[in-house]
Amino acid sequence: MGGWFAVDPGPSGPMRLFCFHHAGAGALSFARWQNRFLSALPVEAPVRVVPVRLPGRESRLREPRITSATRLLDELEAALRAYCDEPYALYGHSLGALVAYSVADRLRSRGLRPPELLAVGACSPPHLGMPLLDGAELDDRALHGLLERTGGEMPQSSLGPVWSQTMLDILRDDLLLARGLRAAAGRTLDVPVLALAGQADHVAPVAQVAEWSAYTVGGFTLRSLPGDHFFVRDEPVVALLAERLGQIPADCLTSATAAPLG
After folding, report:
1. Is 25 a domain residue?
2. Integer Cα distance of 107 and 229 in angstroms
């Protein structure tokens, strides 16, 4: 499927979980999530996983990548607006966490229904520095070195030189986007936030991920998981999200009242 959504968001019914991928990656990061949710949740509490694919990768490879935070949020607002009348949740991994937070902030500022849950994974909050953000202007060799030192190196052993170069180019632009999103962030949301951290993640350690608590007055939960910066590929993250989404009260899933602006 082309456009922003890797799968059809579908008709009314299941809660939609819009998922935003990490830097240098794409919607395929969440390829196994739907089946894992089906195994983790009872039939009466379904979740429809909708991976969001940024331009310039996978089926959108020929499209120009977006490095402007404002442009990204303008386009995502237009894409997501039609689905904000019904309950939904957001999950973002690394760069995707900044996107998910910024989307929640943008939709709320427009008077639209906020997410039932904002889940952020493998990402320090906007006010903290992140060494990887310095990689956007580095040459290939220096960027590889930075990735190795921070533990953010993407597995590329099966890729040829052309695809490896393409991935580096995508990563650089995504780092520029992350920098812009961090610079524009800072507002506190009235949305429940679940922050997830890998126990062996040196890019976004647990202690840093915990500081997302400053960005919500809607309730905050921190959970750590086995794995490094790329725990998005593992089963425990889905099981944890399924558990948390299954705890949302039934009346929240039927009310379509947008939160008041403040």
Report:
1. yes
2. 28
How far is Cα 62 from Cα 51, in angstroms, rounded to an integer? 19
Compute CA distances 215 → 21, 73, 102, 218, whole Å: 21, 18, 11, 9
The domain that contains 116 carries what CATH number? 3.40.50.1820
Q: What are phi and psi of 197, to 5 degrees?
A: -135, 140
What residues contact residue 139 under an 8 Å CB cut-off, 6+ apart?
none
Condensed to tens digits (0 to 9), the pLDDT of residues 236-256 reads: 999 999 999 988 876 566 544
Helix (H, G, I), strand (E, B) or coil at 127: coil
**Is 148 part of a structural domain of the chain?**
no
The residues, any chain, with a CB within 8 Å of residue 115's CB and separated by 6 or more, are 88, 89, 90, 104, 107, 191
Total-model pTM: 0.91
